[in-house]
Amino acid sequence: MQEKNSFIRWVKAHKKELIIAGVSAAAIAAIILGYKNREELISIWSKLDRKANTLPQPDALPLSTPVVGTTKVEPSINVPEVTPHIISDIPQEIKSHLRNLPDGWNASAEKIATAAENGYSLLPGQTWVDSYTKNRIAA
């Protein structure tokens, strides 16, 4: 027990040096492995580069476009510009699924019937969400 306590005290006293030694050993091991496998790493990197070059390039349009210009409502008050931020310009098909509702909320009779038609039995606090396509712009 005395030996264990003295080892723990030694570790606590040399914590900084032990961390530096561990990080250094991991860095040296990574450098050695990288050097030994450099041919394969170069091959993988070039394949990734070729793949990236075949991906479609984004349009040269700015990410945001002003929708409303500055308009004077009164001589001393200006309405600020509203700039939408594009979340995604690629349509995403979201499949129908179950959704948990906030406490105290329940599904409508229509959603309970739709879920049953799709082979699901809704629990209290759940509803059915029909499939939809998501592609939106948020202001």
Descriptive account of the structure:
- Helix content is 43%, strand content 18%.
- It is of the alpha+beta class and 139 residues long.
- The chain folds into two domains: 2-54, no CATH class; 84-138, no CATH class.
- The strands form four sheets. A two-stranded antiparallel sheet has the order 1-2.
- Strand 1 and strand 2 (77-79) form a beta hairpin.
- The longest helix is centred in the N-terminal third of the chain and has 22 residues, at 15-36.
- The N and C termini lie far apart (65 Å).
- The model has no long low-confidence stretch (mean pLDDT 80).
The oligomeric state is single chain
How does the helix and strand content classify structurally?
alpha+beta
What portion of residues belong to β-strands?
15-25%
Helix count equals 4
| Termini gap | 65 Å
What summary fits the major beta sheet? Answer: 2 strands, antiparallel
The sequence of SSEs as H and E is: HHHEEEEEHEEE
Write the layout of secondary structure elements.
Elements: H1 2-13, H2 15-36, H3 38-54, E1 71-74, E2 77-79, E3 85-86, E4 92-94, E5 97-100, H4 109-117, E6 126-129, E7 132-134, E8 137-138
Quick rundown:
With 139 residues, this protein is of the alpha+beta class.
Keywords:
139 residues; alpha+beta; 2 domains; two-stranded antiparallel sheet; two-stranded antiparallel ribbon; 8 strands; flat
